[in-house]
Amino acid sequence: QVKQTVAVLGDSYSTFEGFIPKGYATWYTTAVQKATDVNKVEQTWWWQVIKEGGYKMGNINSYSGSTICNTGYRDEDYSDRSFINRTTLLGNPDIILICGGTNDSWAGSPIGEYKYSDWTKEDLYSFRPAMAYMIDNTIARYPNVEIYVIINDGLSEDITESSRTVCEHYKVKYVMLKDIDKLNGHPSIKGMRQIAEQVGKIMKK
User: Any bridge partners for residue 173, and if so which?
Assistant: First the structure.
């Protein structure tokens, strides 16, 4: 049985120093710091999912602070790090795990209207059209690849509902995270374990 390769498209929740592309901002490192108790890659949710599911690790394309759409914090242009502009960087996976939307929620990125085709450059600065564009592009670029979208708990109602609506439109599986333990808004060791369990459960179905 050939092991399936898992790629991750993520934000700070899915970073770990040395496992993401050079030059990408990271949250989790081997340094002991006050902001988090996670300091080993084996503690990350994705490492646990890959190990326990018997998968192989593919590209971990995670950039701390990144938004799905092109509007970041302070209304800055995040085109250089947005999820929609990193969908092409996932290698050749069998399974793609997308974990984002947290920074769109925290940054108060524009929500916009649902739009499932003919996106303009302007559309992609709003969450709903960007979310659809991201999933549409991922499906087109990676045929026959299983895609799972992980939706964080504690996000704005707009981001949470919009994420679900877009996933349902594309018939993409999603995981609604529940009661994740966090330090400074980011999963702790306990929280990482909870994410791994909740994601693993959906993947096994």
Answer: 148
| Structural tokens at position 61 | 């394309």
- Quickly list DSSP for 188-199: -HHHHHHHHHHH
In the structure, what pLDDT confidence band is assigned to residue 156 with cuts at 50, 70 and 90?
very high
Q: For the residues of 109-145, what is the DSSP string, one character each?
A: --------SS--TTGGGSHHHHHHHHHHHHHHHSTT-
Yes or no: say if 20 and 29 are a contact pair by the CB < 8 Å rule: no
d(CA 188, CA 53): 21
Chain mean position to CA 191: 16
Tens of pLDDT, residues 123-154: 999 999 999 999 999 999 999 999 999 999 99
CA 105 to mean position of chain CA atoms: 13
Which whole-number Å values give the CA distances from 106 to 3, 35, 60, 159, in the listed order?
Answer: 37, 17, 23, 10
Collapsing DSSP to helix, strand or coil, 122 comes out as coil
Between the CA atoms of 167, 169, 173 and 175, what dihedral angle is there, to the nearest 10 degrees? Answer: 40
pLDDT tens string 74-104: 999 999 999 999 999 999 999 999 999 999 9
- Would the pTM count as exceeding 0.85? yes
